Target: Uroporphyrinogen decarboxylase
Amino acid sequence: METLFVKSALGKTTEKPVWMMRQAGRYLPEYRELRSRFPDFLSFVRDADAAAEATLQPTNHFDIDAAILFSDILVTLPYMGFDLRFESGKGPMIANPFRSAKEISQLKNVYLDRDLIYTKNALQKVRRKLSEEKSLLGFVGGPLTIASYAIEGGTSKTLQQTKTLFYQDPEAYSALLSHIAKITGEYLVKQAEWGADALVIMDSWAGNLSLRDYQQMAKPFTEIVIQKVRENSNAPIIHYANGAAHLISAFANLSVNVIGVDHRSELSDLLTAYPQKIFQGNLDQALLFARPEIICARTQEILELTKNRPHIMNLGHGILPETPIAGVQAFVKTVRGI
Model:
């Protein structure tokens, strides 16, 4: 059975499905309680029962159309040989960053059926409990974004080390990105095999590149991921990058079904410029802190703009941890016409 979400992603309906990026998270009290049981984030993610529970919490709480696997974009890095840990207040940290060609020989392959068995188990547990009317989404980070953590040693909004490696040693950069792209594509295919109905590529830091640099530093490697999926699965693909309105022309040439757009993009202009493209998102995540009538009005604007074409209702970025539940309810109910 094709769900509403899948039909929309494939362009088969103008009825609007709704979900939210980072929809499992700290704004939900049940998530905070679940998270408190684990000493660190990776142990939480690697517990299939807990990951499945976190995945299902938003669909149990709200009338949304998709559950996205509770995981992280960096889960493959430890198996490639990177010393990854999550530090409170700092986020992901890598003790042995990739900075030169001498590290190429140290890159390891990832045996997905063994190393990511907890992902398989979590997806299958969710699939058994999730309503047939709702979609289950698998996801990965874009190769550029995953590589940036491996190169920078943590989060970077400038991508200084990543760009330095690209400019000074493009062969080493390409070797790392190609390795990551291969594994990322295979991992996305596995998620489809393990029960995901649709697949999301979150290239979170691509917006920090110019269009010229994106075409060289990121797009070829994202295309490797997409091609692996296209060769092995019929699952629709959603591509999202934050702060990347200047890159939409490049995204439009990717072989994906849906392009996620953030709240800084002018949706009406995109709909005019790309009449055949399906978009997702655009509602400012901070609007969920507004009064219900404001949330309703802004959501209605998007619904009106897209009334004659497919569109997946979502936020422009991940839901913020302090978001009031009443704000989420106002957003979802407006989409539902309640």
